[in-house]
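> call design_seq(struct)
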């Protein structure tokens, strides 16, 4: 791990004041631990030292696997990139391969002919000219290499169930074998039929994948989703990828717990 920067300063109005990177590592870790997943993504790009801390300090890694019994079915150990709160992972696909991955706002309601898609710009040259507010390009993020399910035992989260339902849920989670997972990830696939007017067709609205092993990386889960989405697009006779340059969008919509354990 990099040594903490102890002498960095900034000049303001003729005075020298300590830079945040000159603070002790313990304080920097405390600051980073309060960041959302998107702020952590930004922090990785701001400082190589912060990136090192975020990847190597156990408590910071653990913060990306939230566990709260009162947030069922979310926040039960799924990686924050997949956990689908206000943000979802979107896979921009061209010629059958993922070209960009975004952590970006949910689409509500699902776009239809009367509801232009606010992500339509991803299919245009505008995508090459910068990002929109709330869209985080995570294509090269090291977080994608982390496991999709928490590598930490549920006992280590110091959980305190407050109801019978939460007690049953905790017992179920504690009874899982090491490395096993319990999520079904739902996803939608959008093909732009009229880019100029912001109209997309959505297909395979009932598609999902069973996350059998939490030891798979987030990136490997994305490839599994792409494989299913690709098959659905190829089976959809009315889809003409020629009108959009062979591009479509796959969005992880939400997770739910498997009905059989």
């Amino acid at each position: 791990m990099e040594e903490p920067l102890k002498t960095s300063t900034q000049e303001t109005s003729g005075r020298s004041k300590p830079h945040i990177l000159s603070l002790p590592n313990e304080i920097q870790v405390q600051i980073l631990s309060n960041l959302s997943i998107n702020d952590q993504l930004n922090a990785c790009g701001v400082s190589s030292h912060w990136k090192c801390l975020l990847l190597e300090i156990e408590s910071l890694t653990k913060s990306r696997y939230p566990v709260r019994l009162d947030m069922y079915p979310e926040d039960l150990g799924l990686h924050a990139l997949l956990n689908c709160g206000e943000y979802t992972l979107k896979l921009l696909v061209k010629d059958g391969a993922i070209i960009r991955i975004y952590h970006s706002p949910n689409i509500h309601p699902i776009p239809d002919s009367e509801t232009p898609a606010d992500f339509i710009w991803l299919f245009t040259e505008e995508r090459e000219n910068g990002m929109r507010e709330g869209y985080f390009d995570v294509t090269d993020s090291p977080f994608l290499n982390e496991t999709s399910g928490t590598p930490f035992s549920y006992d280590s989260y110091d959980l305190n169930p407050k109801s019978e339902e939460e007690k049953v849920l905790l017992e179920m989670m504690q009874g899982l074998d090491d490395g096993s997972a319990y999520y079904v990830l739902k996803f939608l696939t959008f093909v732009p039929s009229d880019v100029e007017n912001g109209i997309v067709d959505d297909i395979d609205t009932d598609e999902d994948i069973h996350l059998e092993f939490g030891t798979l990386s987030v990136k490997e889960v994305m490839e599994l989703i792409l494989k299913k989405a690709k098959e659905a697009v190829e089976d959809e006779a009315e889809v003409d990828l020629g009108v959009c340059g062979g591009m479509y969008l796959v969005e992880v919509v939400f997770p739910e717990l498997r009905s059989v354990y």
